[in-house]
TrEMBL record:
<dbReference type="Pfam" id="PF19303">
    <property type="entry name" value="Anticodon_3"/>
</dbReference>
<keyword id="KW-0067">ATP-binding</keyword>
<dbReference type="InterPro" id="IPR009080">
    <property type="entry name" value="tRNAsynth_Ia_anticodon-bd"/>
</dbReference>
<dbReference type="InterPro" id="IPR023457">
    <property type="entry name" value="Met-tRNA_synth_2"/>
</dbReference>
<protein>
    <recommendedName>
        <fullName>Methionine--tRNA ligase</fullName>
        <ecNumber>6.1.1.10</ecNumber>
    </recommendedName>
</protein>
<keyword id="KW-0436">Ligase</keyword>
<dbReference type="InterPro" id="IPR015413">
    <property type="entry name" value="Methionyl/Leucyl_tRNA_Synth"/>
</dbReference>
<dbReference type="InterPro" id="IPR033911">
    <property type="entry name" value="MetRS_core"/>
</dbReference>
<dbReference type="InterPro" id="IPR012340">
    <property type="entry name" value="NA-bd_OB-fold"/>
</dbReference>
<feature type="binding site">
    <location>
        <position position="150"/>
    </location>
    <ligand>
        <name>Zn(2+)</name>
    </ligand>
</feature>
<keyword id="KW-0862">Zinc</keyword>
<keyword id="KW-0963">Cytoplasm</keyword>
<dbReference type="InterPro" id="IPR002547">
    <property type="entry name" value="tRNA-bd_dom"/>
</dbReference>
<dbReference type="Pfam" id="PF01588">
    <property type="entry name" value="tRNA_bind"/>
</dbReference>
<dbReference type="GO" id="GO:0005737">
    <property type="term" value="C:cytoplasm"/>
</dbReference>
<dbReference type="InterPro" id="IPR014729">
    <property type="entry name" value="Rossmann-like_a/b/a_fold"/>
</dbReference>
<feature type="domain" description="TRNA-binding">
    <location>
        <begin position="565"/>
        <end position="665"/>
    </location>
</feature>
């Protein structure tokens, strides 16, 4: 594992032209996960993000609002910083292109390129896409004079400009790319860029005179530096180098340049892999090690964009579901490099099944059992059964696989490996049946029960470490409920040895870390999200209406009842306070419920579907005014309603996974 290594990772700096949507959060979430993973693996990490505030687009947006560009960007940049905080983004720095530290470096580097003869004055006459801030020749335009990148109309521009000699470096660039096959990732983007350069590079217009919102060209005050020349320099200016003639010095610069990874969206790979390296070649500075072009988050088949009206605001999503939920979905659903789809039902289903059910329930059940069987105290035990050795072996294999996938930026594969281990740990509970061991603890099963509890806690300790870069809000809460301290000092190394929880550690049951949600509740999140309601259900696998294989067995609808009849039913929400198996019964669970006005005892035949621990603290729908009846000697009051689809499936706490036609009774 890496010791004393450094890692410099950047996201693009975002235009403050509008509010950021969940598409923007994708890149930052991926970068944050990589940064957190690298820290966990022992690297000294610098993680940079920021805002790209100059240019014609911003100037126009400010004019429309009747405020100055800096007033405009100050306001929007504050919302970016708030969003990154809410999403638990661990950036070490936030660069604004309006910072004096940035402007100084842009001017110095522009001057340097001019002094070494790579910048010359001429007149630009051609096309410009203001939303993309990019120049286009007539031949490259789409139909009806549209931008080949974003499809929006371009404008004809004719003005005095400085030009940068891109063409001079085309051969050197091709040679560099050949010698550094990993520089552009994924492979498909590399081939695209090679084709682009082979078709011939034009010199690039690097200053503008038709507006003034930008950094002044140091030797010609009429000009402002072209926004992309300005923006790309952020990756170096944030390291605050001292510039002395041709040399850049300074601690941060020395430690972190060249950057290890520029993570960018696919439509700006061209700027990062052609213009930026050629600028650095001209300036005699080292090139970054890698540019990775990720895909887009797609809604209804198109890239999310404000002009298409299909943007989803991340803040209400985070308010309702939590930052971990959004992070988890983005990371697990999209293979880095490919596009991925967002639909609200798919999102809710993923977080319900993977976070609430698989991970959350594993923690709840484990901590509840340790409290119930051993007053919360763990005792260190060796593996004594094949289930134990199997679990330990998979834990160790998972750490190895996870590290390899993370190092190769296969984030969704890393997540998959961890969730396979989570499922295996859940299965371990079923295999070892702790509730049966507890019954026979006086007949010699006590030691075995302790070993099972210890193995569950250890599995969760390792899981907490591995998920910490992915779901940084939940991971420390798992740690805390296991009764462990020092979460801020964990390393990946800690996950490679089994059996680190000391004897005597006392677990502490807390609130469930990931609640389950149902879709109707979600739909009200924001008006943007509401748009999802009508369209999304059909366009993903998970969102499809549940295929019902039991259609023939669904009974017909019963005869009509009057409203008065319905009114007689006292249906209400109740909270499960206690839940235990009924002795000598295979099917029955005995509950104490908080029904609002009092506590009730009720017996329900759902023992085949739920472990008692799983239901404690959950809310259920309860029919309060059913005549009491005696079951296995226990007086049962009222009835807990459950949905059943006539197969193995039965739900008490949520119905999202049930087939239409399932009966509620
Ligand atoms: N300001 C430039 C970057 C300059 S970097 C020196 C810019 N800004 S942007 O705000 O338009 O986009 C920032 C990033 O967000 C880009 O990497 C872009 O690909 C990404 N995304 C914007 N919409 C996206 C999706 N729908 N999905 C995934 N990423 C998306 O470009």
């Amino acid at each position: 594992m890496a010791e004393n290594k450094r890692f410099y990772i950047t996201t693009p700096i975002y235009y403050p032209s509008a509010k950021l949507h969940i598409g923007h959060t994708y890149c930052t979430t991926v970068a944050d996960t990589i940064a957190r993973y690298k820290r966990l693996a022992g690297y000294t990490v610098r993680f940079l993000t920021g805002s790209d505030e100059h240019g014609q687009k911003i100037q126009r947006a400010a004019e429309e609002r009747g405020i100055t560009p800096i007033e405009y960007t100050n306001e929007i940049v504050a919302t970016f910083q708030n969003l990154w905080k809410r999403l638990n983004i661990s950036n070490d720095d936030f660069i604004r292109t309006t910072d004096a530290r940035h402007e100084r470096v842009v001017q110095a580097l522009f001057q340097r390129a001019y002094d070494n003869g790579d910048i010359y004055k001429a007149e630009y006459e051609g096309w410009y896409c203001t939303p993309c801030e990019s120049f286009w020749t007539e031949q490259k335009l789409g139909d009806n004079h549209t931008c080949p990148d974003c499809g929006r109309p371009v404008e004809l521009v004719k003005e005095e400009s400085y030009f940068f000699k891109m063409n001079k470096y085309a051969d050197r660039w091709l040679q560099f790319i050949e010698e550094h096959p990993d520089f552009i990732q994924p492979e498909s983007r590399r081939n695209e860029m090679i084709q682009f350069v082979k078709q011939g590079l034009e010199d690039l217009c690097v200053s503008r005179t038709s507006f003034d919102w930008g950094i002044q060209v140091p030797f010609d005050k009429k000009h402002v530096v072209y926004v992309w020349f300005d923006a790309l320099v952020n990756y170096i200016s944030a390291l605050e180098p001292t510039i002395d003639g041709d040399t850049l010095t300074g601690d941060l610069y020395h430690t972190f340049w060249p950057a290890d990874l520029h993570l960018v969206g696919k439509e700006i790979v061209r700027f990062h892999t052609i213009i930026w390296p050629i600028m650095l070649m001209s300036l005699g500075l080292p090139l970054p090690k890698q540019v990775f072009g990720h895909g887009w988050l797609i809604v209804d088949g198109t890239k999310m964009s404000k002009s298409l009206g299909n943007v989803i605001d991340p803040i209400p999503l985070i308010d309702t579901y939590g930052s971990d939920a959004l992070r988890y979905f983005l990371l697990s659903e999209i293979q880095l490099g490919n596009d991925g789809n967002f639909t609200l039902p798919n999102f809710v289903q993923r977080i319900n099944s993977d976070l609430a059910n698989d991970l959350g329930n594993l923690l709840n059940r484990t901590v509840a059992m340790i409290e119930k069987y051993h007053h919360g105290i763990l005792t260190k035990c060796d593996s004594t059964s094949e289930f134990d050795t199997d679990l330990v072996a998979l834990a160790m294999q998972t750490v190895t696989d996870y590290e390899q996938h993370m190092e190769h930026m296969e984030l969704n594969k890393a997540l998959k490996a961890v969730w396979t281990f989570i499922s295996r740990t859940n299965k371990y509970i079923d295999e070892t049946t702790p509730w049966i061991l507890a019954k026979h603890s006086h007949d010699g099963d006590e030691e075995r029960l302790q070993a099972v509890m210890y193995h569950l806690a250890e599995a969760l300790r390792i899981i907490a470490i591995l998920v910490s870069p992915i779901i940084p809000s939940g991971a420390p809460r798992i740690w805390e409920q296991l009764g462990l301290t020092g979460f801020d000092k964990i390393t990946l190394q800690d996950a490679t040895t089994w059996g680190q929880i000391p004897t005597g550690t006392k677990v502490m049951k807390g609130e469930p870390i990931y609640p389950r949600f149902d879709i109707p509740e979600m739909i009200e999140v924001s008006s943007d999200i509401e748009k999802e309601k009508g369209t999304v259900v059909t366009n993903t696998e998970e969102g499809k209406p549940v295929e019902d294989s039991t259609v023939e067995t669904i009974p017909p609808i019963k005869e009509l009842i009057s409203y008065d009849d319905f009114e007689k039913l006292d249906l209400r929400v109740a909270k499960v306070l206690t839940c235990e198996k009924v002795k000598k019964s295979k099917k029955l669970l005995k509950f104490t419920l908080d029904v609002g006005v009092e506590e009730r005892t009720v017996v329900s035949g759902i023992s085949n579907y739920y472990e008692p621990e799983e239901l404690i603290g959950k809310k259920v729908i309860y029919l309060a005014n059913l005549s009491p009846r005696k079951l296995m000697g226990i007086e049962s009051y009222g009835m807990i309603l459950s949905a059943s689809d006539f197969s193995e499936h039965l739900e008490v706490t949520a119905i999202q996974d049930m087939a239409p036609g399932s009966l509620v009774k």
